[in-house]
């Protein structure tokens, strides 16, 4: 008897392009959400877009509230939840980089409310996905939440954001190559459920970005367009899989471990990019995809070495040899690789 079932939760309105911030109200009206909006933003994104979004939402009829978050932490999520409990909004709107969007996403999920994502930086695929990632002391928690009901990504704003945030978003996408390979490996060795649709979409997204790597330049709105479309596509792959598997393999474990060992040193996307070079080498040796991944990262100006990440040799080796302990997710790291093997991979790939 056939007993499989699936539930794919996707954003309903994805609005991407030049000046689309002005369509935020329209994108939200179209969702038929009731009640007062609560805008969650952080200081710079507020100036860049938050105040404009607030004004636009006021035109929908309800006077919106706004809360400014300073850091990504469970305390800040609690603070936003307190505001929600006090004002009883109809929905949340996260305006900013990953920090404001994650906090809005997690507070909304906690309170059973919908949320809308208005990214001001194309820094990683969390701006579209249903997952939150929150630092907590020396740990980082990757938590399942709900995907945004709508995403409004204005390429004029994204193109104006610091270029390093965009290269981090690119690297997060490029890392899909190794994430999908690890997922397939886990499927073969551990019978982990694998979705061919999600795997193919995720890999194709990375391929399209690599094919366009030459044309990605700071300040070019076309570049912001290419990157944000790829982030949306990657988010959709995660929704289809109902897991971050299509976009998170050993390279992400390595990055999560770096977050513990060297917090705040480098951006998530930059760390996973370097992790992806190492992972590709571990997956296929010197004749595999690591060279293509490294040259695509170099072309867009993302880090390809520990030095460019600002992380020392010992920390890289420690992260690589302990990354498998982060969570129960089978990858090419298996039950862990030894320090000499880690050094060999890091040296052969030029990471060290
Ligand atoms: N949900 C997920 O799957 C993931 C979530 N994360 C989380 O996301 C956060 C990191 O995301 P980021 O976007 O790097 O952090 P962020 O939101 O702190 O933004 C980085 C910096 O860029 C500034 N910024 C943003 N947009 C700007 C603009 N248009 N112009 C000028 N400055 C601008 C911000 O003010 C901030 O100083 C962390 O909290 C991390 O845990 C990271 C990876 C994946
Ligand atoms: O960053 C992500 C995908 O790019 C999310 O992955 P995690 O589930 O490892 O946090
Ligand atoms: Zn990522």
UniProtKB/TrEMBL annotation:
Keywords: Cytoplasm, Lipid biosynthesis, Lipid metabolism, Metal-binding, NAD, NADP, Oxidoreductase, Phospholipid biosynthesis, Phospholipid metabolism, Zinc. The keyword Nuclease does not apply. Binds 1 zinc ion per subunit. It catalyses: sn-glycerol 1-phosphate + NAD(+) = dihydroxyacetone phosphate + NADH + H(+); sn-glycerol 1-phosphate + NADP(+) = dihydroxyacetone phosphate + NADPH + H(+). Gene3D superfamilies: 3.40.50.1970, Dehydroquinate synthase-like - alpha domain. GO terms for cellular component: cytoplasm. It is found in: Cytoplasm. The keyword Metal-binding applies. Glycerol binds at residues 125, 172, 252, 268. GO terms for molecular function: glycerol-1-phosphate dehydrogenase [NAD(P)+] activity; metal ion binding. It comes from the Archaea. Pfam families: Fe-ADH_2 (PF13685). Pathway: Membrane lipid metabolism; glycerophospholipid metabolism. GO terms for biological process: glycerophospholipid metabolic process; phospholipid biosynthetic process. Its cofactor is Zn(2+). Zn(2+) binds at residues 172, 252, 268. Belongs to the glycerol-1-phosphate dehydrogenase family. PANTHER family: GLYCEROL DEHYDROGENASE, GLYCEROL DEHYDROGENASE 1. This is Glycerol-1-phosphate dehydrogenase [NAD(P)+]. It comes from Halovenus salina.
């Amino acid at each position: 008897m056939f007993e499989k079932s699936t539930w794919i939760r996707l954003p309903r309105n994805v609005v991407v392009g030049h000046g689309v911030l002005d369509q935020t109200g329209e994108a939200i009206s179209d969702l038929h959400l009731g009640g007062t909006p609560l805008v969650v933003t952080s200081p710079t994104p507020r100036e860049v877009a938050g105040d404009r979004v607030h004004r636009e939402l006021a035109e929908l009829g309800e006077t919106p509230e706004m809360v400014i978050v300073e850091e990504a932490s469970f305390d800040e999520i609690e603070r936003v939840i307190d505001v929600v409990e006090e004002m009883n909004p109809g929905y949340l709107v996260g305006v900013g980089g990953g920090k404001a969007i994650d906090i809005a996403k997690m507070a909304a999920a906690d309170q059973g409310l919908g949320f809308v994502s208005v990214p001001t930086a194309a820094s990683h695929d969390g701006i579209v996905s249903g997952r939150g990632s929150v630092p907590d002391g020396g740990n980082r928690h990757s938590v399942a939440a709900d995907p945004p009901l709508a995403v409004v990504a204005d390429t004029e704003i994204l193109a104006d954001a610091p270029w390093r945030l965009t290269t981090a978003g690119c690297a997060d996408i490029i890392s899909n190559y190794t994430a999908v390979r690890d997922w397939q490996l886990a499927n073969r060795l551990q019978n982990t459920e694998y979705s061919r649709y999600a795997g193919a979409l995720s890999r194709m997204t990375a391929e399209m970005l690599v094919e366009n790597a030459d044309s990605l330049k700071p300040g070019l709105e076309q570049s912001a367009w290419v990157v944000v479309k790829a982030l949306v596509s990657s988010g959709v792959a995660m929704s289809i899989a109902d897991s971050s598997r299509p976009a998170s393999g050993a390279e992400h474990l390595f990055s999560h471990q770096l977050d513990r060992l060297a917090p705040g040193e480098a951006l998530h996307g930059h760390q996973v990019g370097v992790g992806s070079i190492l992972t590709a080498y571990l997956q296929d040796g010197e004749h595999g995809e690591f060279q293509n991944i490294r040259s695509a990262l170099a072309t867009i100006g993302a880090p390809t070495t520990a030095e460019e990440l600002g992380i020392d040799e010992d920390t890289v080796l420690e992260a690589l040899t302990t990354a498998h302990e982060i969570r129960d997710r089978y990858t090419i790291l298996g039950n862990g690789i030894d320090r000499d093997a880690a050094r060999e991979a890091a040296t052969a790939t030029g990471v060290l």
